[in-house]
Design brief:
Radius of gyration: 12 Å
Structural class: alpha+beta
CATH superfamily: Hypothetical protein
Strand order of the largest sheet: 2-3-4
Strand content: 25-35%
CATH class: Alpha Beta
CATH architecture: 2-Layer Sandwich
Distance between the termini: 19 Å
Largest sheet: 3 strands, antiparallel
Order of helices and strands: EHEEEEHH
């Protein structure tokens, strides 16, 4: 199983959009809620200069029920 990359929030949001997620709402200035039409949703920490740690990225992928391979494929597109 490939290792998850360390990403900025912008790259993660772009990949999730490719997988059918849309921005539902922004909570304050630091968290973005993204939702899929089938009801899956997750919260993404948005801090302009900080990376999203691998553990947090793994938790987000588990929240939205996406495999690492599926996510990495969307990230490369």
């Amino acid at each position: 199983m490939p290792k998850l990359p360390i990403l900025k929030a912008k790259s993660l949001i772009k990949a999730l959009r490719k997988l059918g997620f849309v921005e539902c709402r922004q909570r304050g200035t630091s968290h973005l809620i993204m939702k899929h039409f089938d009801g899956r949703r997750t919260s993404i920490p948005v801090h302009s200069s900080k990376d999203i740690p691998r553990g947090t990225l793994g938790s987000i992928l588990r929240d939205v029920d996406i495999s690492r391979d599926e996510f990495l494929k969307a990230l490369r597109q």
